Amino acid sequence: MLLRRVFSAATACAILCAGFTACSSQKYPEGSVEYAYDPEAPSLYEEFADYFDVGSAINPWDLTEGTNEYEIITNQFNIYTYENDSKPDHMHPSEDVYNFENTDKLVEFAEQNGKKVRGHTLIWHSQCPDWFFYDENGNDASADLLVERIKEHVTTIVSHYKGKIDTWDVVNEVLDDGYGLRFSDWLRLVGDYDGDGDDYDFIEIAFRAAREADPDARLIINDYSLESNTNKAITMYNMVKAMLEEGVPVDGIGLQMHVGYDTDVQLVRDNMEILAGLKEINPDFVLEVTELDMNCYTWGNEDIEVDLTDEFVEQFDNTYKELFNIFLDYAEEGILKTVVFWGYNDGASWLNGSPAGRVNHPLLIDRDLKFKSAYWAVINTPSEREAQ
Ligand code: G3I
């Protein structure tokens, strides 16, 4: 079994030529970063099946049958998030217009192939059309009007996909990076709607409407930097704890996990531990990794081209591997259910091009659709663990 994982058709020759033994299965030839695309390569989601679902953000054009892209996403993943097409600006561009067409196609693809879908996202401050926040006279919407719109928006979309979309990011990025809630238009206009002293009523209203529209969908509060910003993780813990105690139907927290190749993995573990504490309030509470990728640049390093030295690649691969070992630990504790990459090949990642000209390599498959050594480092983690 261990051998099958490593010695896929394209890699066996290279590894044998380099004189490796089966025991050093996760090592690769000196200076080699990547391996040719291999349709016989093992499947990420199958290798992790005993632990969690493995998914990817994709776009509508990835669903073209007969392409390598289609083959990769079908073989490698069992859960999908649209990178952009299920966001408010796509799904509900004006008050009377809903666009279900693209997300319907993803749902249909998932149904035909026995896969799952994450809906991203219902309420967000970004990629959200302005009409939500104004009344017919162009003034700020009243709290009553915005609350009605939230209910209508959430109910219409979640009902449309009742029984078809497994998980919803009901709200996205509602926390501030410093302290407390992000000062979005949702917060500014709805505020403490029920007068009970807390300000997260727009969140509460969205979750309650989503639960009513599809009682079986998993409802997630999704945010970034939860794995690295401990203040933010604690703020999230406290807010969700209060909501759970009030009966707000939050089923789990999504950690986006846009990390760097040099991320502090112990901090990732520690912050996940904080959030995992919510299981004490609700034994069925889950954590999901919703947008995993690994930036090859660090903040403040504006080099246009990262140097993929052996040393760099080794660090990159090891960080991925250590993260997946953390994920496996939390899966074994019964709290981590899903790991989704934010894209599946380097060329299509949002991390390219900002600043202009930047080429990034944040995923497990390169821009020529070759499986990188990081892919093998990740896919071997369950078997290495089981062999110990
Ligand atoms: O579709 C238009 C196109 O018509 C236009 O010509 C072009 C000009 O710039 O823009 C295109 O839209 C872009 C869209 O991606 C589709 O490519 C937007 O400008 C661009 O802002 C948008 O970026 C997306 C970003 O969210 C928006 O905030 C990224 O693709 C997407 O990966 C990113 O995803 C977010 C998650 O939703 C939430 N967490 C963070 C994550 C990364 O930023």
TrEMBL record:
The keyword Signal applies. Residues 1-24 form the signal peptide. The keyword Signal applies. Its EC number is 3.2.1.8. One of its GO terms (biological process) is polysaccharide catabolic process. SUPFAM superfamilies: (Trans)glycosidases. It catalyses: Endohydrolysis of (1->4)-beta-D-xylosidic linkages in xylans. Residues 38-381 form the GH10 domain. One of its GO terms (molecular function) is endo-1,4-beta-xylanase activity. Keywords: Carbohydrate metabolism, Glycosidase, Hydrolase, Polysaccharide degradation, Signal. Belongs to the glycosyl hydrolase 10 (cellulase F) family. This is Beta-xylanase.
